[in-house]
Structure formats: structure tokens, C-alpha cells
# Entry
Amino acid sequence: IMFEETGPEWLSEEVKTGTTIIAIEFDGGVVLGSDSRVSAGASVVNRVMNKLSPLHDKIYCALSGSAADAQTIAEIVNYQLDVHSIEIGEDPQVRSAATLVRNISYKYKEELSAHLIVAGWDRRDGGQVFATMKGLLTRQPFAVGGSGSSYVYGFVDAEYRRGMRKEECQQFVVNTLSLAMNRDGSSGGVAYIVTIDEHGTEEKVVLGNQLPTFFDQ
Amino acid sequence: MRGQPLLSTVIHREKMAAAPVMMPYFGQQISSKSDLVPDWTRQEVSTGTTIMAVEYDGGVVIGADSRTTTGAYIANRVTDKLTRIHNKIYCCRSGSAADTQAIAEIVAYQLGFHSIELDEPPLVETAANLFRASCYRYREELTAGILVAGWDKRKGGQVYSVPIGGMLVRQPVSVGGSGSTYIYGFMDANYKPGMNKEQCMELTAAALSLAMERDGSSGGVVRLASISEEGVERRVILGNQLPKFSTH
# Structure
């Protein structure tokens, strides 16, 4: 018999943001949303993590997958965008930020396991949402990601309509996050919402007991 | 035994299609070990699927897609996955096509015999327990996710879920199969207790359409059935008549 102290399981498990993230475009801006759970195996190592990371004043990204990989990509792109925006002398385009994320995701696709959704507002094209999973780059009216997204594909397909206003989009994001957090063991905690339009960026937290409730059986 | 291959190399496949999957499954993009025989001949036939059953006051509504796959090949695009077990008891099958057909036939026989002994229509709970008994006893060998639904005089409309592993639970609304993951959120948001038959039919048709759109192993037509004291009423909704959603 080996009396080896291996320690608690979660110390050796990879830390993942098993997660639900969503971003949606409306006329004049975007709304991003995420849950707040970071898990290592069965243990929740952070129950209040904000997975909506700023890349620039009016460009945010939503993190999912390996926490380390996602955070590092976001930090690198934040730096690259700073340099780029100084070079061009104006605010960067959302497409540029998404391209920088995609370049890293694609070049290191064997080593990384993170999926970032990039969303923001710029003067040229207004609100935009880009998905960059596994190194592709595609603009979409809305995007969902993370382990919890599987459970809400049906809901977002059914509920999304073109031309929703800002408040409708915010409600849509909160509802989607709530449903996913109820079904996905790797998503939970509170909901973070970020709204970006030409006037500025607004961050909001919706606490657990304030989230909308649905049929629970 | 799963995966009866035509060649001597035995390829063990992870049965993913029946169990709800967390991440989209991009697997099976391997090249064949031999170019003589197409890949799908060595794959197990599965009803990678979406199935759903809903209780209402006075009966149940059940629904399923119609796709049976052998790997990437669609072996049957008009499958009937709503299988009669008794006059007013049906089951929805997901997982291995062979396993679920065999179990359903055995349970139908057992239930028919039991009903003759009793000299009255059998209970839905009895049928569900017969399914559970087989699915639990042979859990290592089987891949079967089954929804048992029907009407009896004692408790009215009932839905019982017997997922992989062989547990048994009664639920007012239940979904199953590989496509079910995509509609949990939709179902939670749109099901309300106290819906009538027509509302349940619409909910089921909408949910199945959404799942069929997202799950590669589900597709074809939507088969619906309603079971109540009056009897069984079956419907088919063809592809071009399915409810449409804005991302189309």
C-alpha cells in the first residue's frame, strides 16, 4: 500500500472556464454576457470571475475554455491593440481586434484550447460580433460559446429576431445565461453584462437571486 | 455486441450519439483503414436522435425526428422511432437502433402477457418498469435511451424517462437523444404546466425542429403522436412544413 499524499484532486486538474458566453449585436452597439464560474474538476475555484475582458475602450471579448489560455490571449491582444491604435492614431476597428485574436488562435491551435467571442462598436461599422473558435473568423448577428451554450442553441434560435433594441437584447442575454446556468454544471454564479454603444461602455452585474427563473423540474 | 465489422479489424467506437454531449462532437473524421469498403459499413447503426414527450391533462404528446445513421451515412431518413408497446403506451427510442428495437419487442411481449393475466389494460408505470429492468440489468452491453409515455385509467397521461444506465424517473416533460442538449434551454423557457394538447403539439414540433437544425444526427421529418383516453392520433410534419426560425 502506498501512503502517498497526492493532495486534493482539484490541485491537479486543469482550471477551465467551463462556461456560457454570449454576444449580440443591435442597431448602434453590442451586448455581451457571461456567467462567473471557474472550475477545476468538480471544484469551483472562482465563483465570481468576470469573463468579459476589455481589449479596448469599446471592444470587449468573452472568454471560454482553458482559463489560462483565454486570459493570456486577451492580455496579448489588448497590448497589440494599444500599439496598433497609437500607430493609426484613432480607435481600432472591432474587426482588427477579432483578427488579432484569430491570428493567435490559429497559429497555436494545437496548443491552445480557448474560444473567444470578440464584440464591440466602432465608427465605421457600428456594433459587431465576431466568433473566433479554433482559428476561424466570422461575423455573426449573435454568438454563443462555452459548454453551457449547447443547452441554449434551441432557445436562441427560436427567440432571436433581427432589429431588437438595446433593452430587448439585454433581456435576451440575461434570459439565455440564466437558462444555460441552470442546465450546465460548469456554468453558474452571477451574470455579467456589458453594453457597448457609441456613447460608451456600461458594465452590470445581475446577482443569482435576481436572475429570471424558468420551469424547473 | 456492438459494431459488427465486415473486416477482421475491430474498431471500438465510443457511442456518443445517444448520450447528451457537452461539446460539439467533431470526431469520426478519420480516414478508413481500408479503401475497399466504405467507412459506414463498419459503424454501428444508431438512432442518433431527438425525442420528446410531454404530459397534458388527459394524455401525452410524443415526438421524434426520423434519421437513423451509420456513421455519416443516413441509413433511414424516414424512421419511425415512436414504437407501440401497447394500445395506449408508446416509447420513443434513442441510441443503438438494434438495442432499442430488441428491448421494445421484449417489453411489448412481456406487457401483452401481463395484460392478459390482469384482464385489463396495463399501467404506463408497469411498462416503464419493464424497460428499466432490462436496461439496468444489461446496462454494460446496451446503449439505449428511452422515453415511455402513454395513458391509463389510474394516473392519466404519464411520461417516464429511462436514460442510459437504466434509471427511471417520471417527469412532466422530457427530452432525449443526441439532439436533446440543444433544446433544454428552449424547453425550460417555453414549457408551462397546464398546457393543452394543441399547445403541447406545437411546443414539441418547434423543439424538435430546433434540435434537428443544430444536431447532425437528427433530421428528416417530425413524427408526432398524442395518446389519450380517446385513443392514439399520429401526425407527420414534412421538412418544408416545419416551423421556421429567423436564423434560417
User: Anything to note?
Assistant: Confidence is low (pLDDT under 50) at residues 1-23 of chain B.
